[in-house]
Amino acid sequence: MKCWVLIFGILLLAGCSTLRVADSTQEEGSVSESPEDDLSDDLSEDSSTDVPTSDEGGNADPSPEPASEVPVSEVSSEVPVEEASSPVEAAAVMAGSPFLNATFYVDPNSDAAEQIIAWQETMPEDAVLLEAIASQSSANWFGDWNSDIAASVNRKVTTITNAGALPVLVAYNIPNRDCGGYSAGGSADSAAYLDWIEAFAGAIGERAAVIVLEPDALGLVSCLSEADTAIRYSLLQQAVEIFKAYAQTYVYIDAGHSNWVEAAEMASSLTQAGIAEADGFALNVSNFYTNDENIAYGEELSALVGDKHFIIDTSRNGLGSNGEWCNPDGRALGTNPTTETGNDLVDAFLWIKPPGESDGTCNGGPDDGGWWAEYALGLVENAL
Description:
- It contains 10 helices and 7 strands.
- By secondary structure, the protein is an alpha/beta fold.
- Strands 1-2-3-4-5-6-7 form a 7-stranded parallel β-sheet.
């Protein structure tokens, strides 16, 4: 009998030890801030390209991948921006969600991080404030400014996944993009677009990634002819199918925002664009409407498209919209990127539009997608 007690005790201790090891491993979930070493090949071609920012929907503007490898400065920040998460956060969401136990990548060479370094000596207080942006994760945008889409996507996904994080990528290259607005451009024709999507999806491969598919593409179908509208729906549906051929690629089709297209009309567009095969839809990309407004709209829309989940861009919606979409004054940072949304249908609040990037040459802003340090600082100050 004593032998059995002894054996049981040994097994119990071993089990406790195993649990402690597992817990310890899970706690080390922070993403390393390793410098970007995969971007230089494209920069000579891409960095001189004006990166488009979208028009009426307020969708913006991926800027080219950073050339510098300067690490984020170690400036401490006490900025009380709306706090919903740490910049790199482990989370438990519903089973099957791409955000289950996900971490978000914080780019050590972001525009905000480099601005902090530039301001450390001359504007130290403002440098501290910008940590509110530099310490958070933003999505990466890809479009016709990427000379080799497969190489660009592969480098970015490799950097992020090697850091143990989940890539959030924006595909923004639909033909007739932005109806000739600030972000006019896109693929030359349908065949070129589908080739581009194939290369994009193949570069991700079997690695996990979230795709925000074509900001404004559905919101702006009103500017297209009936024939071109049908083509757009078909291209989006095929894009969803191509991405979803890879088991760990999760697709959220852009669906505008709460003050643009009526839910019934958007639901019809989403249905024709392949929402049934997608993982959900994205709201408020590059716009300013509040979480509550977008959640109400998203819930109504979700009920019309098979209870699909959605994500919300919260990068600049801290004070809501003033009715303008292009570099409006007085706006503020919104909820930090997080999967703790408090709503079962909302998979994540994300910074899809990098705060501080211009919406275009309006209200004193630089070219589409250009870094605007003063505007970035205003977003932080208005969030205090």
